[in-house]
Design a protein that fits this description.
two-stranded antiparallel sheet, homodimer, 10 strands, about 45% helix, Creatine Kinase, Chain A, domain 2, alpha+beta
């Protein structure tokens, strides 16, 4: 497996990138004539793999799969480190990493398109984009979807729409997600208000690695939960034009309140965080994420002049365990990993 | 009251100064013909004050009271800030600061000799010295004691020795104390073993400000508790030649174990501490003391080349609230005090 060591796709200036790190549109699809993954035999799973591989590798540039040929990663023949790398880049889910089923992922070279095979559904296709650009991402995933559908039959009911293993995905099978960086709402203790409001709107608020994971570095992934009975455009409009801008506005308001009312506290947190990142000799993942989050807020609020935002954004990824191992070696024990993390951060932030 | 703003007496190279910050010999004396302080009337207390003032201000250079004339500070006519300054410099006890009795202190210009008047006893005379030099300090306090005794009659029993308000001081009335910096024993969790051993030897282990105070910055004040039935020289020998060198050896051993077994951990703590001191915008007293302690250990263990030990030693004093107020103004609220502390430390350590 050959991944770009420094993933760079999310560093360009993108809409609302001060709060929205990235967004994602995901489609859940199943191939007609096969049971859902949790009921399929090994032979059937293998057959799905074979079909998917043929279809996905046959896609050309005009199918909008990224710059060129898709890369096929057979996850049953890959190392734990490589699977973790894919999780850390949000190219596969934790479930797919840990699954015992025959499974794979196809990834475009620029890593903005990935198709998981034999996750909960036969195909989970996603387009990732920097900032808040769900409209463009939806357009692109639809092109990919059409290209795949021209080569296989999807499980589809004229009454219900696309059929999926979990009822929440039946219908369009679409899910919109955004990865939000909400450090100011965390500091002002308003994050719970956002969580409650999201719950009332039937949105899911998840951690840094999606379902079942905790928030880290003040990142929150917010996505729609129900698709049945609503059109994609309907969902998109509500999500991108209404809900997410409101959360962005909350966060921005919290930032300006902090700047006005708690300047010394904010400066203290920011400069301490940067100082520790620049000087620690041992650094755990959770602490690194927390400190990077504070520095990112400090940079965005013009409290730190000499720190490039791009370096901070990249470090969120590079401090993850599998990425560190890629840099520093696979056979590090826990203490050595904390040392390697501190070394990398210290050198990058110097 | 005019104190030297930067107290410098303890910064020369002194015996065992890597572990022993300072040492102190104190004599408890009472003037014959007056009840002990806790039983004396206001008139009697005033009379003790008058006598003490006359005797102490009359002492000349040949009485070994320091470089020149003693300074008399009437604590009932001094500000809270000034009394705190004296506590922070260990020139008066917390008890004397908080007492309601008519009380005073006489201090030599170099601040190495002080005589508290109407603390628990009529006179509490102390000589402070840097490092471990109790022998010299004892010699000096004895000269002062003789000078005072040549002018007043002490309460003395041929059978029991000098009479004092608390039975633990009866006899020679002498107490030896050392202020030890034991950061390595704290890190290796062996400090409790030292405490237990000290208790078994009838020694008192106290905090940074003596009786009834907590340890701060890994400083521990150790002193003998019983004087009755033992000669000064006897006590001194046991304390200075035997007990304290053992504790010093423990601490040094803990430091070399740390250097060998936990180098990354030690470097991490040291560099983080220095980084925070150099970058924090808000700094509480307890945290400042903790971080300074780590930096002091780092300097002594040659982990930091660009930090002068003298600056660190002075900061332990300068970060105390009354010293900060002396620098930054008396009318600071708690938040402003934390800001002023961070400013001072940041500039000093830059």
């Amino acid at each position: 497996m050959e991944l770009i060591p420094e993933s760079t796709w999310d560093n360009e200036p993108a809409p609302h990138s001060d709060v929205v790190m990235s967004c994602r549109v995901r489609l859940a699809r199943n191939i007609a004539g096969f049971p859902f993954v949790n009921r399929a035999s090994e032979t059937q799973c293998n057959e799905v793999m074979r079909t998917a591989r043929e279809v996905l590798l046959a896609m050309g540039n005009n199918d909008d799969n990224g710059d060129c040929q898709m890369m096929w990663v057979d996850l049953n023949n890959s190392t734990t480190r490589d699977r973790r790398l894919l999780v850390e880049r949000h190219l596969i889910s934790r479930n797919l990493d840990e699954s015992k089923t025959r499974r794979a992922v196809a990834i475009s070279e620029d890593e903005t398109l990935s198709v998981m095979v034999n996750e909960e559904d036969h195909l989970r296709m996603q387009v990732l984009a920097p900032g808040l650009e769900l409209g463009g991402a939806l357009e692109r995933i639809n092109t990919v979807d059409d290209a795949v559908e021209s080569r296989v039959d999807y499980a589809f009911s004229p009454r219900w729409g696309y059929l999926t293993a979990c009822p929440t995905n039946v219908g369009t099978g679409v899910r919109f997600s955004v990865m939000l960086h909400l450090p100011a709402l965390k500091i002002t203790n308003e994050i719970e208000r956002v969580r409650r409001a999201a719950r009332d709107l039937h949105l899911a608020v998840r951690g840094y690695y999606g379902e079942g994971t905790e928030s880290a570095g003040d990142f929150y992934q917010i996505s729609n939960q129900v698709t049945l009975g609503r059109t994609e455009v309907d969902l998109l409009d509500e999500f991108e034009q209404n809900i997410i801008p409101q959360i962005i506005a909350y966060e921005q308001e919290a930032r300006s309140i902090l700047a006005k009312r708690s300047e010394p506290l904010l400066d203290d947190r920011t400069h301490r965080a940067l100082a520790i990142l620049r000087n620690a000799r041992l650094l755990g993942l959770e602490e690194a994420m927390k400190l990077l989050s504070r520095v990112r807020l400090g940079v965005l609020m013009q409290r730190l002049d000499d720190v490039p935002l791009k370096a901070v954004n990249q470090l969120f990824l590079q401090v993850q365990p599998a990425h560190l191992q890629l840099h520093a070696g696979d056979d590090l024990n826990a203490d050595q990993l904390r040392e390697a993390r501190a070394d990398l951060v210290r050198k990058t932030m110097a």
